[in-house]
Amino acid sequence: MKVTAIHDYKEDLDILLRYFSEEQLIIDKYHQLGGTKITVNKLEETEDGFVVETQRDMPANVPGVLKSLLGSYNTIKQSETWHWQENNQLLCKMSVEILGVPASISGQMVFSEPSDRANIATTNRVAVEVKSSVPLIGSTLVSFISGNIKDQMDDEYHLLCKVLPQLAAETQ
Predict the structure, then answer these.
(1) Residue 116 belongs to what H/E stretch?
(2) Residue-wise pLDDT tens digits, 142-152
């Protein structure tokens, strides 16, 4: 199942990127989104971007049919590779593992700075794919995870819209 979103920001990409590339801001972001036991396991620059690996426990409001697979908190390991493109866009390829859950989650974010849209400095186009090969409840699992991802994407977007203006003001 595919989950997509387009998030527009008033702040430029350099400001927005700090919440994806600076250890303390990554930890703060996940903490404000309800995460616990948040660690940044890897944060390295590469030739054309950077790599980030994180782990966190996130609350899950699990329906009864999935309680045996998912707990009230799930440990999430996320790996991101960020690459600058020749068209000045920033591509993030990500894979997400929910420990102990038989599902695969992968996706990408494409950040751009549109010059033709008033009051929009940065656009993030997100696409995430969720799959599971578990018989019988696999489709229910994929549907639940996809809905949860959509909610988390929305929560992260609203949080960033709230905190970015202050971060931008601090850097001026």
Answers:
(1) none
(2) 988 899 899 99
